[in-house]
Amino acid sequence: MSTEEQNSKKELIRQKKLEHQSEAKVVRKIVFIIAIVLFLLIGGLTAGGYFYIQSALKPVDPGNETKKPVEIPIGSSVSGIAEILESSGVIKDARVFKYYVKLKNESGFMAGNYNMNPSMTIPEIIESLKTGRVLQDEVFRMTIPEGKQLSEIAGIIAEKTNSEQADVFNQLNDRAFIDGLRTKYPEVLTEEIFNANVKHPLEGYLFPATYPFYTEQPALEEIVSVMLDKTNAVLAEYSEQMEEQAFTAHKLLTMASLIEEEATEQADRDQIASVFYNRIDTGMPLQTDPTVLYAHGEHKGRVLYEDLEIDSPYNTYQNQGLPPGPIANAGVMSIEAAINPKETNYLYFLATSKGDVLFSETLDEHNQKKAEHITNN
Questions:
Q1: Site: Important for catalytic activity. Where (predicted)?
Q2: Neighbour tally for 142: CB within 10 Å
Q3: CB atoms within 10 A of CB 33
Q4: What is the mean pLDDT of residues 121-140?
Q5: Using an 8 Å Cβ cutoff, are 182 and 175 in contact?
Q6: Are 165 and 154 in contact (CB under 8 A)?
Q7: CA 84 vs CA 52, 78, 81, 88, 321: distances in Å
Q8: pLDDT digits (tens, 9 = 90+) for 23-59
């Protein structure tokens, strides 16, 4: 190859390099411009989204206290509730409300008829839905303590509504009255409450809590519905576990009621639950005194040997397994223990006069603790 040809080839290579360099510069400029545009676009979208969400979390109209009727049907999901609130003009965006509830881990919303206004904040709306509180002046409160039986609850209701306890108690046991409630709460009030041996169908189903009321003499159905709303909301928290463990509401509330009646303030309810489950698994009778007292229909400080002879399906000294139904209402701690018992080998427990609960794996160990803490007192 001649010198002229070599120089021509070198020049061609140099020209191509210059072209590539020029193209590379153009590409870098285009990429840079696109990156800036994307950055500004993403930044704008982020800022816009931030301000939109911030606005959506604020009251619809801070100065407007006009009451708006809002009906939350039984069984409504969070998405359904959010749509109802948006269509009622109480919140700005159902999706933002739904994600706020999810991120805050809020739950236990109660069905009912509410009076809300556009000036309410999201936390105020959530609190109203959790407590069943409407925007009216509270007339009175009714407190149903844990561990109360249906007859005692009837007395509390009667006192607050200027009624006769016997009348309230009779209505709480009326089949037609209960059937009406079952249409509203089919998942909670199942056919199990009408089992032949169940003494009182609503026993254990009226959740212990403090309830506000906004009329002087609300109808009994309204009072009971508020309590069943709460029961329904609490049980909904454990729906997945109940399905996994083949728990019906009736079975869960029955076990929880035994734990509630046996527990002291200092008691480890999950360990008491383990004793009951271990006894069931080994074929032992539960032998829990509160069931005997429930069978007798009276409260006593001490169960005598003669009391244990009562012929009743509730007598867990004579019958294995759970009694036919709950023997009292149970709080969240007892329900939690019933569905999440501690894993132990305990078969016995003993409550001392100081409120401590002592657990044992064998009868000999149990009798020794009984002699130390009970017999010698």
A1: 262
A2: 19
A3: 10
A4: 78
A5: no
A6: yes
A7: 20, 10, 5, 6, 45
A8: 656 556 666 676 676 666 676 566 565 676 777 778 8
- Residue 314 in tokens: 């509730």
Among 49-58, 226-235, 283-292, the least confident range? 49-58
Instruction: List % helix, strand, coil for the chain (3-state, nearest 5).
Output: 55, 5, 40
DSSP 64: -
Q: Identify the CA nearest to 321 among candidates 353, 276, 366.
A: 276
Tell me the CB-side half-sphere exposure of residue 72, using CA atoms within 13 A.
29
What is the reported pLDDT for 104?
A: 81
Q: Which domains does the chain have, with CATH numbers?
A: 68-131 (3.30.1490.480), 140-236 (no CATH), 248-375 (no CATH)
- Sequence-separated (6 or more) residues with CB below 8 Å from residue 291: 258, 314, 315, 316, 323, 327
Task: Tell me the residue type at 362.
Answer: T
Using 50, 70 and 90 to split pLDDT, how confident is the model at 133?
Answer: low
Q: pTM of the entire structure? A: 0.66
**Residue 63, Cβ neighbours under 10 Å: how many?**
7
Structure token digits, residue 208: 């212990």
Question: What's the CA gap between 328 and 341, in Å, rounded?
Answer: 19
DSSP 8-state symbol, 309: G
Helix axes 289-296, 249-262, angle to 10 degrees: 100
List, in sequence order, every residue forming a beta bridge with 350; answer none if it has no partner. 358
Distance CA 197, CA 82 (A): 43
**Per-residue pLDDT at 377:** 44
pLDDT at site 291: 94
Q: Distance from CA of residue 251 to its chain's centroid?
A: 17
Query: Which residues does 300 contact at the CB level (< 8 Å), separation at least 6?
Result: 293, 307
> Do 260 and 273 meet the contact criterion of CB atoms below 8 Å apart?
no
pLDDT tens track for 175-199: 999 999 999 899 899 999 999 999 9
Residue matched to tokens 């933002």: 96
pLDDT tens digit sequence for 316-346: 999 999 999 999 999 999 999 999 999 999 9
